[in-house]
Amino acid sequence: MVDVAARFAEIVGADRLLTGERVSEDYAHDESLTCEPRKPAYVAKPATAEEVSALLVAAAEHSVPVTARGSGSGLSGAARPREDGLLISFERMNAVLEIDTGNQVAVVQPGVTLAELDERTAAAGLAYTVYPGELSASVGGTVGTNAGGMRAVKYGVTRHNVLGLQAVLPTGEIIRTGGKTSKISTGYDLTQLIIGSEGTLALATEIIVKLHPRLPHAATVLAPFGDLTQVMEAVPRILASGLTPNILEYIDNLTMAAITYNEKLSLGVPDSVRDAAQAYLVVGLENRDADRLEGDVERTGELLGELGAADVYVLEGGSARKLIEAREKAFWTAKAAGADDVIDVVVPRTEMPGFLAKVRELATAAEAGAVGCGHAGDGNVHLGIFCKDNEKRQRLLHDIFAAGMACGGAISGEHGIGTAKLSHFLDLEDPAKVALMRRLKQAFDPTDTLNPGVLFG
Amino acid sequence: MVDVAARFAEIVGADRLLTGERVSEDYAHDESLTCEPRKPAYVAKPATAEEVSALLVAAAEHSVPVTARGSGSGLSGAARPREDGLLISFERMNAVLEIDTGNQVAVVQPGVTLAELDERTAAAGLAYTVYPGELSASVGGTVGTNAGGMRAVKYGVTRHNVLGLQAVLPTGEIIRTGGKTSKISTGYDLTQLIIGSEGTLALATEIIVKLHPRLPHAATVLAPFGDLTQVMEAVPRILASGLTPNILEYIDNLTMAAITYNEKLSLGVPDSVRDAAQAYLVVGLENRDADRLEGDVERTGELLGELGAADVYVLEGGSARKLIEAREKAFWTAKAAGADDVIDVVVPRTEMPGFLAKVRELATAAEAGAVGCGHAGDGNVHLGIFCKDNEKRQRLLHDIFAAGMACGGAISGEHGIGTAKLSHFLDLEDPAKVALMRRLKQAFDPTDTLNPGVLFG
Ligand SMILES: Cc1cc2nc3c(=O)[nH]c(=O)nc-3n(C[C@H](O)[C@H](O)[C@H](O)COP(=O)(O)OP(=O)(O)OC[C@H]3O[C@@H](n4cnc5c(N)ncnc54)[C@H](O)[C@@H]3O)c2cc1C
Ligand SMILES: Cc1cc2nc3c(=O)[nH]c(=O)nc-3n(C[C@H](O)[C@H](O)[C@H](O)COP(=O)(O)OP(=O)(O)OC[C@H]3O[C@@H](n4cnc5c(N)ncnc54)[C@H](O)[C@@H]3O)c2cc1C
């Protein structure tokens, strides 16, 4: 114990290694609603890839499990350390190394937050389009979870926007994968394998992300519908129209009531319409040209009308921003309302109506609540689960996940498995795939140093 | 020998197993210019995933190496079988299983050609946007190589457009990865790992691809430049403008002369402009709206003028199509002109001028020719190499690949390593990465049954 702490301290500097009382509560958890906090034995704050490498080698030698932490905003317990473990916090590796306008990429250290990257890219007229609800998330953490967010419907998720990595293998080797190009056919794609691996395969110490021109004109259209199925059926039609919305979210009436109440938001929807609405569709549009945007807004309004919207509201800049922000905070709203878990099953978008009907049925049978909103364009349904009894809730979750998979979907669209959904993953996933994933884990991490207990138990 | 042939025949049916004289020359090679044809001992034509699985199990038991073949249009020798090996040809697994307009995906068997998929998606108003020069390529083969093509600048390469697979592991297990959704964070991304693995990890027996609305209005703009560096410098500026071209190709003057001569193509470029042109930029634009397209064409013309184009030509439909087709056939033109190899180094797009200057220098020193064209928007430079002496040519290739890598690029952008570039890959790639890739290969294929000799030698 003492030995290995001294070794870690030697690597990062004594003031960058926390143990015992100096480890604050914050490092004990992420934002998962169901994972008990666990304080790690050590927290190290490296400044370079070489330090990360030396930490991993030392940890492997002493059989100390290692968990990486970005901002701890994850929702699956994957950044929650082990009690006997080392937490590597990337908070000091937080430099934007380069905004390369010619190649439209940024090169960043893993601890850079999305908020900071947004600010820095804005100054160059560019944008990083991975935009999960929580902008305090770190770029390294989004690599860990393959984060999505609202703009994925147009720009894809983290996987589609990370072009290359510097990564440290559990064996201590520092490799570079990919590059400032969006195509490479030269051996296996290690970048893609590391993305979404929840800190179990390698630690990203530098990340090359793709940027897009920041389009100057944007609008938000809100449409209440009398019926959730109608909303769901509208989604494929909007995407088939060629309109390319950058936001396409659904919000059910209970969630809308909660978030507008919480945020004191007035959207100009008359009481009569609101009372009849079962769900809302939020459509974001953007363009480099104001006239074209106006044309798209008009076309969207017509289309929503044809698809059965009770009415269509083009929101003013201020209230549009507030609605989007409120939607981003839906997780906090659910938490405040007493949700016992929040999940994010993904299904083919045409399966959403059937899947949600099944969820309602299962929740009713379990005397539980399941309400939410979601990235409708991606078939990614976020549900707040209200069910105090843990055993009952686990059974319900099992059935909901199984229903999603039966529709051709998966347990998580963007939050990951972590430890929160581990037992369901191992229970429901094809054993041949889990066995193959274990062999891949072994190929990267023969000593099982990185995040043991996550993904495989 | 006899035993295993009987076993293969039992699996696929006697008339679907070819041996000896019945194996035609066609199965002995792909389109690589440097790989000697090699007739396989066996060719099997399975009809189902179960048959593929049984073939792999039998082959592993008898230590028969297995190579998958789509259409054999690959350029790296990766579909070239071993003399003692089994070639699994997917020619009978060629059904389009589903065009799902709601989810905008197609589900296809691996032997479906891109030409057929294009026809089938067109009928539904949709398009599969992976569009390499050779439309006889199979979807399975494009998964094998992570094929790109001209439209990658807007829509990405195969990797960005394949959402899921049914795949047979070398151990015989049949798994399903991904699905009809574009985001999943549920374990490692096996889809992405298999894509681009050149038939060394698993065989795809079903492929879910993403479709896009087929935009009805398209235009092609051609701009001659006095200087290749100017062309290269124009590329990032066009992409930064927000114009989102779906084609952005450069063609050097020698290549343009050859392809226009070969295809008897007249583009309306006056002799004086043509004589002064060192290179051309081809910009493709498309839109769902004719007026918007016109606006974009105009803006593109202005921009090209500002960027130093000698002139700008908006090509008529017929000659635009012919030019694109001629560009697609540039490989055949190079081959007919006596090229000794064709390579496709990828570099960050801002590095193209420097890289091409270095290539000229290296080629001159080696008394060799290196001319070409390329997917300029992606930094993917296709070069015909003219150098008869094999040893000298290998030295030149080594230096060109090293120069590309020194610019932050990679040996191949879309053709792959196969056996053609194997020695250079093993020579130049980071040994830690190659060792990791070998361990991944081992995790999938413990008996080294799938395409031994490709990627690892
Ligand atoms: C209010 C709220 C809204 C949210 N909305 C969304 C949303 O819309 N979409 C979405 O996808 N997510 C959303 N999330 C979840 C969360 O923001 C994302 O999961 C994000 O990716 C976590 O980033 P982080 O830096 O906080 O990572 P952490 O929680 O610190 O870590 C996440 C995982 O990444 C690993 N990791 C961290 N750093 C590295 C590294 N350098 N290399 C390798 N692995 C590393 C960790 O070990 C862990 O497995 C939301 C969360 C909240 C609280
Ligand atoms: C004139 C010409 C122009 C070209 N232009 C381009 C271009 O612009 N962009 C580009 O990217 N390529 C281009 N190519 C190369 C070629 O078309 C692509 O590499 C294509 O992906 C090969 O498809 P195929 O079906 O012919 O594959 P094959 O050559 O048969 O096989 C290619 C690889 O895939 C593997 N494979 C085949 N089927 C499967 C399966 N079901 N599961 C797993 N692995 C499998 C094979 O083992 C092999 O490793 C061009 C080729 C020619 C001749």
TrEMBL record, chains A, B:
<protein>
    <submittedName>
        <fullName>Oxidoreductase</fullName>
    </submittedName>
</protein>
<dbReference type="GO" id="GO:0016491">
    <property type="term" value="F:oxidoreductase activity"/>
</dbReference>
<dbReference type="InterPro" id="IPR036318">
    <property type="entry name" value="FAD-bd_PCMH-like_sf"/>
</dbReference>
<dbReference type="Pfam" id="PF02913">
    <property type="entry name" value="FAD-oxidase_C"/>
</dbReference>
<dbReference type="InterPro" id="IPR016171">
    <property type="entry name" value="Vanillyl_alc_oxidase_C-sub2"/>
</dbReference>
<feature type="domain" description="FAD-binding PCMH-type">
    <location>
        <begin position="35"/>
        <end position="214"/>
    </location>
</feature>
<keyword id="KW-0560">Oxidoreductase</keyword>
<dbReference type="InterPro" id="IPR006094">
    <property type="entry name" value="Oxid_FAD_bind_N"/>
</dbReference>
<dbReference type="InterPro" id="IPR016166">
    <property type="entry name" value="FAD-bd_PCMH"/>
</dbReference>
<keyword id="KW-0285">Flavoprotein</keyword>
<keyword id="KW-0274">FAD</keyword>
<dbReference type="GO" id="GO:0071949">
    <property type="term" value="F:FAD binding"/>
</dbReference>
<dbReference type="InterPro" id="IPR004113">
    <property type="entry name" value="FAD-bd_oxidored_4_C"/>
</dbReference>
<dbReference type="InterPro" id="IPR051914">
    <property type="entry name" value="FAD-linked_OxidoTrans_Type4"/>
</dbReference>
<dbReference type="Pfam" id="PF01565">
    <property type="entry name" value="FAD_binding_4"/>
</dbReference>
<dbReference type="InterPro" id="IPR016164">
    <property type="entry name" value="FAD-linked_Oxase-like_C"/>
</dbReference>
<dbReference type="InterPro" id="IPR016169">
    <property type="entry name" value="FAD-bd_PCMH_sub2"/>
</dbReference>
